[in-house]
Structure of ABC transporter:
Amino acid sequence: MNKQALTTQKLTLTYDRTCIISDLEIAIPAGKITVLVGANGCGKSTLLRGLARLLKPRTGTVFLDGKSIAKLSTKEVAKQLGILPQSPVAPEGLTVRELVAQGRYPHQGWLQQWSPEDERLTEQALVTTNLMHLANRPLETLSGGQRQRAWIAMALAQNTEVLLLDEPTTFLDLAHQVEVLDLLYDLNQTQGRTIVMVLHDLNQACRYADYLVAIASGRIYAQGTPSQVMTEDTIEQVFMLSCRIITDPVAGTPMCIPIGRFQARSQQSYRMM
């Protein structure tokens, strides 16, 4: 049986009295890349916050490596699980190295200050993300892709087995999106990190995911490999969008071709000729 990094049991998450996630049960496979997809407002980001213990469940339980995450100390959670929220903000003037070093804070204490191990892991994170030459640059002087890599480096310095990322490619151009996703893929392949991320681009999700979870109205509509999940019926039901699924000529994964109203009318006119 495959090991599960994160699981939930009848998880219900709410904001005030509004239910966002209802009785959800999910098992995130360890050492794999899992991507959450779904329409805006379906609960993807809320689920990620619930998995990271940033949002207290109304009911149900999240298990981290088989243990109830609610019963673990904040420091214990931070040593096992790192999260990169959507559009993170750093204090002005912070350098890349200073940001990355913050990933070591969960490992500090009254009796354990900055150590050679902290230095080693900070340097390693900078090298892994190809940021060593920018280490002393203020974060605000970097490009969008470089800044995102710096935040990922901070999560790497935290040295957790599990990484949660909420839309890590948001506001990036296509080249920087691929750069960030390639980096995460390499981390998974070379270091065995369990990665869970929210993505909007379905074709990128299929290219990079081992496991795909489609969420609709706070519930799981479909889950499995990209080939199992990415079907025309799933897209119709989850996104209310007609499409055709073909094979990606580069990756060999499912590729979604959306059909808008104009294309649908054109197809209908063509059939009537």
